Amino acid sequence: RLLRRDLIRDYESVTADLQTVRGKIHPVATVRSVLSGRPSVRCDYEHFGVDNPLNRVLAAASRVLSATPSLSGALRRRSRRIYARLGGVGELRPTDIRSVTDARSLHYRDAHSLALRILIGHGTSTQAGKSPAWTFLFRTPEPVEEGIRTVIQRHLSHTWGVRKRGRALLGAKRRTLNPDLVFGNEAVDADAVGDVKYRLSTGSIKTDHLYQLTAFAAGYHAPRAVLIEFGSGDETDHVEVGDYRVDSFSWDIHMEDPEDAGRQLATHLEQWLATELAA
Questions:
Q1: Are 118 and 64 in contact (CB under 8 A)?
Q2: Which of 22, 62, 165, 181 could join 83 in a cystine, given CB atoms 3.0 to 4.6 angstroms apart?
Q3: Higher pLDDT among residues 132 and 253, named by residue
């Protein structure tokens, strides 16, 4: 978001040997240059550009990230693009770490703070200590839900359609049902529905989850619904509500390889769906 706007520009003091006079002349250095056969003028002047402490901090942090092998390729490529966007910014200087944002650079605040944390914390680990830390809070339920759905799609695509599809309800006000998982190849109804809960399983289906999944099943005319949580992989439960049955399975968080955990969960679901089809 920061890079969608123009980079902040400041006046920077520069000392350089020039062919024309600019700013304040260094007479001694200039005379020596002329007498040595290299005619140039040593000048001090102010340059208005992007090479300032705030931008140097951002550029240095992006270089650190792009050179960190433990990060994903996508993140490293994104860091290189950020660094390329900061063209014209010089090397980090020791005093840049003490730079702060002001009213004119308020839109730099979050990015600058994060960049400082990257530079200061580079090569360290998260341990208990006396130094305060700062970070962003990322919402994790949505990416976890998307990841579970992608794993199930990959393993069951040969026999089952698996997708996220909302359904509007009739009534006085606009309401929709939005299960995380809709199993089946029919455009209207579903063979089963499911929901992913980003929580540790207790081995029992909570009452509010039961109500929600039963509503999903009724809304999609699906005889079964499934609740997916996280645990040892052995937690299961089922409840029958009239014509609907709600089952629960868990993703095994103790497996070292997520691929194995995903394969195990997909196998449970495939057997569960096949049992329903036979019934």
A1: yes
A2: 62
A3: 253
Contact of 179 with 194, CB cutoff 8 Å: yes
Which pLDDT score, from 0 to 100, does residue 224 have? Answer: 95
Helices (H), 108-158: 109-121, 141-156
Q: What is the pLDDT of residue 135?
A: 65
Residues 46/85, Cβ–Cβ less than 8 Å: no
Strand locations in the chain, DSSP E? 10-18, 24-25, 41-49, 162-163, 167-169, 175-177, 181-183, 192-200, 224-231, 237-241, 244-252
Q: Domain extents for the chain?
A: 2-121, 141-278
In this structure, what token pair is assigned to residue 53?
Answer: 């402490």
What pLDDT, in 10s, does the model give residues 200-217?
A: 999 999 999 999 999 999
pTM over 0.70: no
Q: What are the b/e assignments for 79-96, b being 16+ CB within 10 Å?
A: beebbeebeebeebeeeb
Ordered DSSP codes for 58-100: HHHHHHHHHT-TTS-HHHHHHHHHHHHHTTT-----GGGGG--
The pLDDT confidence band at residue 156, using thresholds 50, 70 and 90, is very high
**CA angle, corner 158, sides to 157 and 163, nearest 5?**
20
- CA 196, CA 257: separation in Å to the nearest integer? 20
Check pLDDT > 90 for residue 9: no
Q: State the pairing for strand pair 162-163/181-183.
A: antiparallel
Provide the CATH topology of domain 141-278.
Trna Endonuclease; Chain: A, domain 1 (3.40.1350)
Sequence-distant (≥ 6) Cβ neighbours of residue 276 within 8 angstroms: 191, 192, 223, 224
Q: Could you tell me what percent of the chain has a pLDDT over 70?
A: 92
